[in-house]
Design goal:
The structure holds two protein chains of two kinds. By secondary structure, chain A is mostly helical. Chain A contains 16 helices and no strands. Chain A has helices at residues 2-11, 17-41, 47-81, 84-92, 97-118, 120-136, 150-177, 187-206, 219-254, 256-269, 274-303, 310-343, 346-354, 359-396, 407-431, 436-442. Classes of the chains: A mainly alpha, B alpha/beta.
């Protein structure tokens, strides 16, 4: 079965591009931040430099790794779900569920490993750039040399592999069991969702207690916001269903044929869309949370009657860069997953066209779907971010909400909406170029 | 008049062309796959096919694999664009415009039944059936939908989804969907290809009924002589050309003709094959 896995990778490298890209980017980010731990642990590094580096690596590298884990896992889940036809074919030719599992998991392991190996050099370069920034901000002594050692390497490979193999295993188990027992089991997802929500809420609450701590005080609420995002993403199909119940009548009444397609299509596929919602919720949650926390921190310094020192400014810049990297990563994952999920739907689009839908109607349907996805993702992401920002704001200032206004939120939502719509519509347009008859014949 | 070239000429011909109830006409329809460059050979799937089918007829199109039957059906139904030639449905010429124009043209005039049903898995039976109306922005008459579904024997399965139905039931949903918009021509591409004999008989009976009772025109591609015997006449296709016709076919006669299709064709050679079967005077299907 492993040789079959290797062959299927070699025959269709394109199919693994999305998975490989996510593994590569994820591993790069983990290695980049965790190389700071290697650097901090090297001989001859003074205590102050070592502490700055470790704090940054723990705080940012920690939640970065968490984010990478879930993003890679969601891409893998989407990728495996698309292969139900192939899995059914293998079953009908006599493969046992265990063999199929070994094949899919084997593929995921190979792709994850290749992705993390490719990430080593970019991770080294990125780590060096990060160190330079710390040195420029004066937090780390100039004579500290960048080190890329076992911590960076092992954490990068381990987390990426664990995420891809774990997600592939769970997804393929669902796919191979689908036939035996009609109702797919969602216990793990439900419990995982509750656990993430509980832990996230607990972390957010600890934010209330961290009044005068240093910049690290941002860490628990930031972690909390991420965990809440993950937990919400697990339950997002239910909310999407609720949203459809509320707006379904309206959409079918005013959306014409496209509205009809969207409403009835989404109702059935709501569960599958959580793979797309995960990166979107994470993107909105992490960006909004960190950007507002930083603005609160700035207000706090100002309120204390201090002017922002050079160090504070540098810290702010560093924070923005770090959040920028992670936000860009979540955004790329969103595009990546949505692209994979949309290009897989060529058969469905073909059937819609054969039933009399014009390409314009199919596109409008995809657009409506993107809109509903964005609404759901933004709602949950904002909820998670607010849960993290409010405790931090209360701890730092006398207010409950940051004074920064809606500008940041609008900008983040704008980026999420633009990425979602552009990817969904762009991919669908490309898919629609294949004649309808061919798209349904391919899988027949 | 059927040999006339050019779109203007044939369009005018349809008006005064004597066949007032002509449901489908193809004039010199040609379709070539592949670029025909030095490396890959171009495959001529349709080689100047001309035919005319009266309204209220049930026609089967037969031929060996690769004879161009499915291409013929797809070009006639507006699912594929011929390289040259004219396709007219119900007196209106199908112009080689955008897919949107073709789709709108199809909605008004054409229903389609596929071998693989092509029902949307996310919609239930009733929703699949009304989909063409919804997409065309037409009013959905619930009584009419119920009537069409009762006609195909699925009135009690309206809330079932396709994966809860047997192959025969799915194909009957597909027929209901093809009929709901009251098209003038229904095309069926191997509609019984994936069905057991009993389901196949039901499906063929339904197609026959739409012709006899509703006066619709049905064109069906098949490779099964028994299926073809349900039609009023059978057209034989080989290497992209019409090579014969059989009226009031029996399964045995069709099988017999199919068996010798190759012989006759080989004897005459691919380039000398006549446009029509010499036994038939002018255009096929009239």
């Amino acid at each position: 079965m492993f040789s079959l896995a290797m062959r299927s990778i070699r025959q269709r490298p394109g199919r693994f591009a999305a998975t490989l890209l996510s593994a590569f980017l994820g591993a790069t980010i983990i290695m980049m931040f965790n190389s700071l731990l290697d650097t901090a642990g090297a001989d001859g590094v003074d205590d102050v430099s070592s502490e700055s580096l470790s704090t940054a690596a723990m705080v940012v590298g920690g939640y970065g790794s968490l984010l990478v884990f879930f993003a890679v896992a969601s891409t893998l889940t989407v990728a495996v779900r698309q292969r139900t036809t192939e899995i059914d074919l293998l079953r009908s030719t006599g493969a046992t569920p265990a063999q199929i599992t070994r094949m899919i998991v084997g593929e995921a392991a190979v792709v994850g490993l290749v992705g993390s190996l490719l990430a080593i050099v970019p991770g080294m370069l990125g780590g060096r750039i990060l160190l330079d920034m710390f040195q420029d901000s004066g937090q780390v002594a100039d004579d500290v040399d960048h080190a890329f050692g076992t911590i960076a390497l092992m954490s990068g490979i381990d987390i990426t592999l664990l995420a891809s193999v774990g997600a592939a295993f769970l997804a393929v188990r669902r796919a191979t069991r689908a036939r035996e027992q009609r109702a797919p089991r969602r216990r793990l997802r439900t419990w995982g969702g509750y656990a993430a929500l509980g832990l996230g809420a607990a972390l957010c609450v600890t934010g209330f207690a961290m009044g005068d701590a240093g910049p690290e005080a941002m860490a628990p609420p930031a972690y909390g916001a991420i965990l809440l995002s993950v937990g919400f993403a697990a339950f997002s199909p239910a909310l999407l269903g609720g949203l459809l119940r509320l707006t379904g009548g309206l959409l079918t009444a005013f959306g014409g044929g496209s509205g009809y397609l969207t409403v009835h299509g989404l109702r059935q596929r709501a569960a599958q869309l959580s793979g797309v919602l995960m990166p979107m919720v994470l993107f909105v949650g992490i960006s909004v949370a960190t950007l507002y926390m930083q603005s609160v921190e700035n207000d706090h310094i100002e309120a204390a009657g201090l002017t922002q020192s050079v160090d504070d400014k540098n810290l702010e810049t560093l924070n923005f860069v770090v959040v920028g990297i992670i936000a860009v990563f979540a955004c790329v994952m969103l595009i990546n997953t949505l692209y994979a999920a949309t290009s897989y739907r060529s058969r469905e689009f073909g059937q819609q066209r054969l039933a009399g839908a014009t390409p314009g109607q199919v596109l409008a349907g995809v657009g409506l779907e993107g809109l509903l996805l964005t609404l759901t993702g933004v709602f949950f992401g904002t909820l998670a971010a607010v849960a993290g920002v409010v405790p931090f704001t209360v701890a730092r200032t006398d207010d409950v909400l940051p004074s920064a206004g809606y500008g940041i939120w609008l900008a983040v939502v704008g980026v999420a909406a633009a990425a979602t719509m552009a990817t969904a519509l762009g991919t669908a347009r490309r898919v629609l170029r294949t004649p309808a008859v061919e798209t349904v014949a391919l899988a027949a | 008049m059927f040999g006339r070239n050019g779109r203007r000429g044939t369009a005018a011909g349809a008006v005064d062309g004597g066949a007032p109830h002509e449901a489908l006409r193809l004039v010199k329809v040609t379709k070539v796959y592949g670029t025909g460059g030095a490396e890959e050979a171009a495959v001529t799937a349709l080689d100047g096919v001309t035919l005319s089918l009266p309204a209220g007829s049930f026609t089967a199109v037969m031929g060996p694999s690769g004879s161009g039957k499915s291409t013929l059906l797809q070009c006639a139904a507006g699912l594929d664009r011929p390289d040259s030639g004219v396709v007219m449905v119900d007196g209106a010429e199908m112009t080689g415009g955008s897919e949107t124009e073709l789709t709108k043209f199809r909605r008004e005039r054409i229903g389609f039944v596929f071998q693989q049903y092509n029902l949307l898995p996310t919609l239930n039976v009733a929703q699949n059936t009304v989909l063409p109306l919804k997409l065309a922005g037409r009013r959905v008459d619930r009584a009419r939908v119920r009537e069409v579904l009762a006609r195909v024997g699925l009135a009690d399965r309206m809330r079932h989804r396709p994966d809860q139905l047997s192959g025969g039931q799915r194909q009957r949903v597909a027929i209901a969907r093809a009929l709901v918009a009251a098209p003038s021509v229904v095309f069926a591409d191997e509609p019984t290809g994936a069905l057991d004999t009993r389901s196949a008989r039901d499906v063929l009976g339904l197609l026959q009924e739409t012709v006899r009772v509703d006066g619709r025109t049905v064109v069906m591609v098949t490779h099964d002589p028994v299926a073809a015997s349900y039609a009023d006449s059978v057209l034989f296709l080989a290497d992209g050309r019409l090579v014969g016709q059989l009226n009031a076919p029996t399964a045995d006669a069709v099988a017999e003709r199919m068996t010798h299709l190759g012989d006759m064709y080989e004897a005459e050679g691919p380039h000398r094959a006549p446009h029509h079967d010499p036994r038939n005077s002018a255009p096929m299907g009239v």
